[in-house]
Amino acid sequence: MFGLDTSLTILLLVCLLAAAAFEFINGFHDTANAVATVIYTNSLKPWAAVIWSGVWNSIGVFAGGIAVAMGITNLLPTELLLDTNIYHNIALIFSLLITAIVWNLGTWYLGIPCSSSHTLIGSIIGVGLAFALISPNNGVSYVNWAKAKDIGLSLLLSPILGFSLAILLMYILRQVVKNRLIFKEPLTNDPPPFWIRLILLLTCTGVSFSHGSNDGQKGVGLVMLILIAIVPGYFTLNSDKFTIDVAEHVREYKSIFSKIDPNELSVDEKFEYEKAQLNINHFDSLLKTGKSIEHFEVKEKAQLRKDLVFLGKSTKILLESKQLNLSLANKEKLKQEMAKLKSLTEYAPSWVILMISLSLGLGTMIGWKRIVHTIGEKIGKQHLTYAQGASAELVAASTIGFSTWLGLPVSTTHVLSSGIAGSMVASKGIKNLQAKTIKSIAIAWILTLPVCMILSGGLFLLLRWML
Fold first, then answer.
1. CB count, 10 Å around CB of 220?
2. How does the average pLDDT of the chain come out, rounded?
């Protein structure tokens, strides 16, 4: 398989199964975010809710693109993923997977809504920092801190946004909706009126779809990390691309780039201009060897990938510059050509997306009760009303969908939980929250990143030493 011997093939399969298991756990860990409201408002029976949610989670994985997946993949530099000792790469992957699975299972068992995003990203950063401790190149950063900063801000701000928007939406509903039935708790086990039930079903669908499109991509990114680390010759670059097409995009890029006057740029921007020029020229020189993508050596593929990563960063900075002397048409064209070049590295095979889609969808249908109980009964002191359920899910679906469009991972758990909390506060004030539950969620929120960083980093050092 991929030219590996039997032992490495088995290890690769174990890693892929573990990645599928992580996404499976993510499914039943985060399912509660979508189905709690429809279950606690009697809009759907539990079995129907989880099946419906599972289907839309799977659809979301396919429809969400791969921008978030590439954000996960690009957290670690190419050099770390392409260690010449393949067993060191396996140590890296196992450290990520074991940490992410153990922490997710532990918080699920305790019934604490916890972010799979925080878990995975903390694990990735942890191995990067651990590698920095043993690397002979002290001046090299083994974590993409720019990407980590963007992701960190996204994970930090999204629950605050969810809490605030839920309060605002509840206020708007109270001013606009005259039928007070939606602000009351379900008094029987009978379904709510059709129009309320339809709204809650739509919001459940929206959260399920957006969860799949965002969290599903994290699983895709994790699998791509595995494939690049263990079989780099096959997955470092997209072998479906033709060298001649890539070379054409390089020519178009260089043609527009040549119109930039570096003298009008600031000192920092001029530095990025020079870096971009070096990277595109080096990238072009490798392409001119005439080899097809699949016939490049692993080191050459790594260098091509590295050139594109650095080129993308420099191009983004230049395009954001107010001093850049390009017309709007040329700026847009440069952006488009850069996107076409990045498709050489930013891709995922269809079988990877299918594997993650099935894992997330099936996981959604299992093990959901613990977290549903917490979200439905333990965040607020009152039973969930129709308006609270719809407000929280509408805020969650829109926040996650917008983040997916930006290519940023967010925590479905934290956005939805904070939305529920916001809707409770909007109804009866801060006293309507259960302090014990909020404290547990907050502690898990604060601890997840550092604990996962320490666990994965420590595991990586131990496994690397053993292997």
1. 27
2. 83
